[in-house]
Amino acid sequence: MTQPKPIILLDRDGVINQDSDAYVKSVDEWIPLSGSIKSIAALSKAGFKVFVVTNQSGIARGYYDEATLHAMHDKMTALVEAEGGTISGIQYCPHGPDDNCTCRKPKSGMIENIEKQLGVSFKDCPAIMVGDSLRDLQAGNLRGCAPVLVLTGKGRETQYKSIDFYFDVYTDLAAFTIATLHKYQ
Known about the structure:
Elements: E1 7-10, H1 36-45, E2 50-55, H2 66-82, E3 89-93, H3 109-118, E4 127-131, H4 134-142, E5 146-150, H5 155-158, E6 168-170, H6 173-183
Parallel strand pairs: 1-2, 1-4, 2-3, 4-5, 5-6
Helix pairs in contact: 1-2, 1-6
């Protein structure tokens, strides 16, 4: 008997595309990491629902606007669709770190929005949160998701932080995808 397929939640910058300490501010600066687009498409084609959950404080900081963010997401979605896959939804937080919102990771508001959209609780329904930062893992863990760290983006530094809960580690999204497809085939 096969296990039910978990919902896959992916951070964006550093997991799907190249991250930048100067922020990814334009469609041209949004460059997918090697294998990430094919990985999302492979998960989708295998029956996994894949969502993107991303902090985008560059909006609050005035580095880019929501129209530019939507254009970046349109590019990402089109690339995944060109590989035969689908992104089930994208949640983003446009707030800055001092805005005291409920959506900015490590808070779990964006994940809660996905739970509401699907009519489930990730404390009862399997879900995996894949990220490259401590706050990604914390947000997923808070909602009952299995946290996964990838070593792309800020992942290499994150792996050495003091983290008081279990998480799996993969070199990148492609390695996570291969293991996940194998586990749930």
